[in-house]
Amino acid sequence: EIIAKENQVIVVEDENMEITVEGPGGMRVHIKNDALHIQSAKEIRIEGNGGGDITLHQSGGGVCVTAAGNVKLFGNDIQIEGDNGVSLNGTVSYTIGTGASPRPTPQPELQPTPFDPLKDAKAPEIIHLAWEYNTLYADESIKLMYMLNNVNAGDTAEIKVLLKTNDGNKHIDTLTQPVSSSTEHHTLNWLRKKEDVNTDQEATGDDITVLDYIFEVNLRDTGLTSDLSPITQLLPNKHIKPELVLRDIPDIDGIPLMYINWELTLNDEILEEGVTDENGKADITTPLKIGEIYLIYYNGTELEIEPQEKYIEPDNSDEVNC
């Protein structure tokens, strides 16, 4: 028993020293290394007389019971959990400060996502419109292709070729083809004569050096019309089709390379692939445009092809003028 008429201070100089206070009813107060542990077999009660706040505080968070009897919770992250639920009686309000938010974070309201209507698998359609090449020349035929699905056999396909102008698409030619099956792939040859090309140039303007053509397909009986095809470009005055021999050394003195793979590209797009013949010749069928520089890759070699009005055999250079 320690009795003091005034303030009493117990000073412990050894930081490892322990102070323990025990009572017969299971009460225990233990102090060690600046840690305080209070244990009781019965009620633990902290009570004030209203002269000030009672606060439990730790690293910016805690609980405060004010002298007026109000309870405040504060901290960086406050969680209230209950196995059987949490009940709040009376008017409830809270303030969300900067950087704080209630947990869990509310999710945005779900919005309906539009989707394309279901397609009838048996509906008639005209699809896969395409040109054989992306460039062509006057008086040289080119294939146009399309596919029919679920159409009436005996109908007639009408193919309209259109010229793109500043005033819109101009209808310049019409081809027809009978439909013999409900589902089939069609191919037609189309040729634009030199005199017609001159007329097309006048329709597009004197400054136009390349003519753009597209086509669409219409079924006469059913009235079904396709989307527009991709573009093919016609070069009115130049027909460039080089006869190129690939050599181990890219000049006239090199040895022709037989049966090797080659690849023709423009702006990193592969236009054509092939294999040289017994004379080392690369049979390039893609029409080449004046003013463009093409690359041909073969046997670890990169060769430039620059189309001109006539083909010139390369001379001690990696560049080929066509």
Automatic annotation (TrEMBL):
What is this protein identified as? Answer: DUF2345 domain-containing protein
